[in-house]
Specification:
This protein is an alpha+beta fold. Helix content is 32%, strand content 33%. The chain has 5 helices and 11 strands, in the order ααβββαβββββαββαβ. The strands form 3 sheets. The protein has a 5-stranded mixed beta barrel with strand order 4-5-6-8-7. A hairpin with a 2-residue loop joins β7 and β8. The longest helix is centred in the middle third of the chain and has 27 residues. The radius of gyration is 25 Å and the shape is elongated.
């Protein structure tokens, strides 16, 4: 049940794996036997069942029917996968509020863009997948995106999503209508901090306040990316 492969496969701390195994095995056996069961997974697997009458009974894994054992293994895998997704979501929270370039990989039937993001990480590049719902796309861009097209997106939220009652993956929600997007793009291009977007109508114009003068080439580049007029006000 517990093997060295689990540490490598799921990338979880050892105590987290032990806890996941104990919870999954106990939950599965309690549902099967309709009695309280405790499990210790440190070292050899130790299972104790507590009948309504009589003394606690120690159970051996080999004595459990094969079908139930398969169900236990499935439950352990599902629990580990869930915890892996939660850990991944926690790590990716730092992406929220940042802007990344992504390629449109697919367009859903309701207009949702399925985007591939390549993110530079200190250890290795990350390939992540995000979704930009229709409501987060500027009206003048809707229905005009093309597969493979590169665009800049704000990561609005990072959260695990449920499929069939289980946590299945980390979902990145992307946005191109946010008021902060022009300021963040200018900040990334110029390295100037303190840039703020005071007002924006996506696809129309952005009114951006900066502490210093910004190169015209950067302003034009952001305007071209967003397909809107970027008006700059200097307010030291």
């Amino acid at each position: 049940m517990l093997s060295a492969d689990l540490l490598h496969k799921y990338g979880l701390p050892e105590d987290e794996i032990v806890d996941a195994v104990e919870c999954a095995v106990a939950r599965t056996l309690m549902a099967a036997f309709q009695r309280t069961v405790t499990v210790r997974a440190e070292g050899e697997l130790e299972i104790i069942a507590y009948p309504k009458l009589g003394h606690p009974v120690e159970m051996q894994l080999k004595d459990i029917p094969k079908k139930l054992r398969r169900h236990i293994i499935h439950s352990v895998e599902a629990e580990l996968q869930k915890r892996q997704i939660l850990l991944e979501a926690k790590k990716l929270q730092e992406l929220q509020g940042r802007v990344f370039c992504g390629a449109v990989g697919r367009i859903g039937s309701r207009g949702t863009l399925h985007v591939t993001l390549e993110i530079d990480d200190l250890l290795k590049p990350l390939i992540l997948f995000g979704e930009c719902p229709l409501r987060y796309q500027p009206p003048h861009e809707r229905s005009r995106y093309r597969i493979g097209e590169q665009r800049s997106f704000l990561v609005t939220s990072v959260r695990p999503v449920m499929v069939g009652g289980d946590i299945a993956k980390v979902r990145l929600i992307l946005n191109r209508t946010s008021r902060v997007l022009p300021a963040l793009l200018l900040q990334d291009l110029t390295g100037i901090t303190g840039i703020k977007c005071r007002r924006r109508i996506a696809g129309g114009f952005s009114e951006v306040v900066t502490p210093v003068r910004i190169p015209k080439t950067s302003i034009n580049k952001v305007g071209k990316e967003l397909r809107e007029h970027v008006q700059i006000l200097i307010a030291p």
